[in-house]
Amino acid sequence: MKKLILSCQSLALCFGVCIVSVEFLGCNDDGDTSVTEPTAGSCLSEPGFESASVSELCDASAPSSSLAIADDVINPGDDVRPDTCGSDKHFNVLLSGRIVRDGAPVPGGVIQVCSVRSEEDILCLIPKLADASGEFSLTLALDGNGGRCNDRLKLRAYDVNTPGASTFYSMLESDDIEVALGDLPLNEGEAPSLHPKLCDEGDSRSVDFDSGLGLDIIPANVEFLTGALDKCLGYSGLSAREVSPAMQNGLFYYDDISPDTLWAFSPEIDVLSDSIPIHFPNTINAGGSDVVEVYVYGGVKTTLSDNTLMDQGKWAMVGEASLNEDGLIDLPEGLPSLSWVALKIRE
User: Does the predicted model carry a pTM greater than 0.85?
Assistant: First the structure.
């Protein structure tokens, strides 16, 4: 099978502009599958990626990223570790697992794997749909051993059919040729109970949830990382859900922050200017004198208030919240981005 690799250099300059196109044209005379060259301004023809942008496909935090198409099977010789793969590296060929929600398979779930060959050189496979049983299997069999020889692997799973945050697995270090990931849990997002219609993108909107979560957002000031450029699509799909850290155990690398609770937001939002003021229900029993540390997780594209681009798979503390007069955990200065948010009572 031919493999397509395209450069995603200088991603920060082309978010929301560069669109990748991959069209399967069928088999040529020798049974090989042909692939068109990528073109700007077009969309992926794979099911579920009709409006996928480079920001949806690449890791924005990587100084140098590439996209590649994965094979589906282990070919003869793929399991032989090359001499060029040093002893300080991991060597993996096949990854398999299942995407689930509440223990049930997610048909049409999506998996994307990135191989961290160095912190400056990351190769991401084009996202792949799981089968009707939520199961997936893919290989890193790329030209020149591509992503097979790595410092670590990272992946994310998501569902294009149901609102909910991506599940990230950012610190996969394994010496197994075939890596069995098991079940990757997704969490269905909850729609807001108060969700003002989008009329003028420049107007601030207060969005409230039955849980007690609330945020103020100006659609014109943010980028919805949905793969679509239309602010209406991103804003209309807002969802959030509180998730126990124990449910994500082994998926997130917590950098020793030991969060008391997690909040999963969808779609991922990167703030272009100002911030998103937010308050959370006090489900962690914070006291009136407690300081609640607020962390954001580096997703596909996550920037901090100083415009620093976060590493995907890392946490950063972005503020200190406290209880307001309504008993809510309030962060009036707001968040610089939304993907996953962690709360922790300072000890």
Answer: no
